[in-house]
């Protein structure tokens, strides 16, 4: 880390479980609660190489590799499908990993992405659906830096809650679109937390408990 560099403040989140007393039954029950908090992170571009002969790791640290162990992609796909959207994998030219088409109510994810990156991208596009799908396209174009900062911040938070660390990709993405501007990131806070709450709750909603069956007499 270069001396004098300032961290980028973005939101993080995690699930906590606590035991509370049910006022109706008087019994103790385990309750899940999502906690959101600001964290300081640093972009790869704010660092200097320790060993210059080893090469710059920035080129290989961006895209996520590995599996989608938690099944995030399928969960996001099911969530969006339930909202009336179509989610598909396809070859996408250029640098984009995915896109959202509000008119067609369709989300596309690049077919060549690793399972982990596809899961992260699905969360990013789901955030666009929640926050920006109803906006005029001109609004998105005019304030694209803010919109992309919001979507990736939501993806970073929710992925972390679900056990997928997207720091290697998300920090650089947010830094690029926000231009490391603290005011821009602060301005996104309310929307980011609102969408992160909605998406995390939808993807981590506990299954209803099975009804007890009375034994036959």
Would you give an account of this structure?
The chain has helices spanning 58-61, 72-82, 115-132, 137-142, 144-161, 167-178, 182-187, 189-203, and strands at 8-21, 28-41, 86-90, 98-101, 106-110. The longest helix is centred in the middle third of the chain and has 18 residues, at 115-132. Residues 46-61 and 207-213 have low confidence and may be disordered. The protein has eight helices and five strands. The protein starts with 7 loop residues before the first strand and ends in a 14-residue tail after the last helix. Helix 2 packs parallel to helix 3 (115-132), helix 3 crosses helix 5 and helix 3 packs across helix 8. It folds into two domains: 1-13 and 28-59, no CATH class; 64-204, Arc Repressor Mutant, subunit A. The strands form two sheets. A three-stranded mixed sheet has the order 3-5-4. With 217 residues, the protein is α+β, with helices and mostly antiparallel strands. InterPro entries: IrrE_HExxH. It comes from Microbacterium maritypicum. This is IrrE N-terminal-like domain-containing protein.
